[in-house]
């Protein structure tokens, strides 16, 4: 890479953070990927930092508070999956309309996604408020956790609209090719949350001491203000998705398109997330050290994957806009290029993991058994890890085209019909222990990437109408 290339990349990074307007259906594909992916990567990093800060402050309240947060997050995973799935549907439809130069239709689709978010969040809120205690009991919470944690559960589920709306509207901005706006909104929302966390948890200054409930209040205030910032930008911003009062109508056709795509993407995310829970349950057979090593290792792996998720999000937007512009070959090239970037990045990460797995795990634990378990997990998962980024980009490319059927089938077949039986067979029947589980996970990552590549290469997604 010569000096001029470095300078151009630096300019692209600056423009990506600033969020300059760009036509993603023309010009350099590398620049288009950079402008979209960098803000999305920063979004993911901010979300990760927020989660770490949140558990840091709650952890100072003791084990009971951590258990309360953990149980609440178990149900919030379902809400997060719903919001993420709806966001992908909104991204796909808005991106397609922008590519078609039908800006008014894109604005209508954006508004319908907001209506849909409100419709699905209301019953969740009602159920969460009315049945917070029974839900905790159903999750196996001890009586003291039920007593202290029911209000936290009610607040988090009752305020689920802030999470769903924040996620979906940011998906709208990404579909319109304006991910820098999403990045700034998350910076505001998470920044407010991080500031309020210690103030409300510990009762600093004039703020009441709310304990674990304070974390829930801070989270909802931060997300709620983030949504207010989104709404302000939708009505007063200068981007393509600017809504005026005459747009506030119901568009049943646009709603159906978003729902059709979102149904598949929600199921995909649920299949993936629940498979992690099932894997954890299987690892628990082999003791607390195995669980701790896996938990630490998985968090490290997740952090390393954040850039690839940003690249995958860029692939979805690029496919949608270029298909809308009648450029299916460019759409295809964008995804293959994105998957190549993800693979190269994960090759470097994999090398770092292989060379320093023990040292990395050692930063998070002083227990030598836990360190060994975590290192074995990282060594083993690295075999298939490098293919994860390519598979994710290809699957999100299909989702961005509105073709959610095959990604859903791939997630179901490989995460559940292959990974789970293979994990049990290797770990229990063949007596390989946790290593057998990790081998099944690594094999699944590889085979999913191969299947996604085959489906994407066939090209039927190029003709998908949404």
Summarize the structure in words:
The protein has 466 residues and is mainly alpha-helical. The chain has 16 helices and no strands. It folds into 2 domains: 228 residues, no CATH class; 203 residues, no CATH class. Helices cover 83% and strands 0% of the residues. The longest helix is centred in the first third of the chain and has 37 residues. The two termini are 40 Å apart.
List the helices and strands and how they pair.
Layout: H1 3-18, H2 29-59, H3 63-99, H4 103-130, H5 132-138, H6 143-158, H7 160-175, H8 179-202, H9 212-236, H10 252-283, H11 288-324, H12 328-362, H13 368-385, H14 388-400, H15 405-429, H16 434-458
Helix pairs in contact: 1-2, 2-8, 2-11, 3-4, 3-6, 3-7, 3-10, 3-11, 4-6, 4-7, 4-10, 5-6, 6-9, 7-8, 7-9, 8-9, 10-15, 11-12, 11-13, 11-14, 12-13, 12-14, 13-16, 14-16, 15-16
Structural class based on helices, strands and sheet pairing: mainly alpha
Our Rg estimate from Cα atoms comes to 22 Å
Query: What is the element string, with H for helices and E for strands?
Result: HHHHHHHHHHHHHHHH
Helical proportion, percent range? over 70%
- From the N-terminal CA to the C-terminal CA, the straight-line distance is 40 Å
What portion of the residues fall into strands of 2 or more residues? under 5%
Q: What count of helical segments does DSSP give?
A: 16
Main sheet?
Answer: none
Shape: globular
Count of β-strands:
0
Question: Could you name the ranges where pLDDT drops below 50 across 5 or more consecutive residues?
Answer: none
How many structural domains can be distinguished in the coordinates?
2
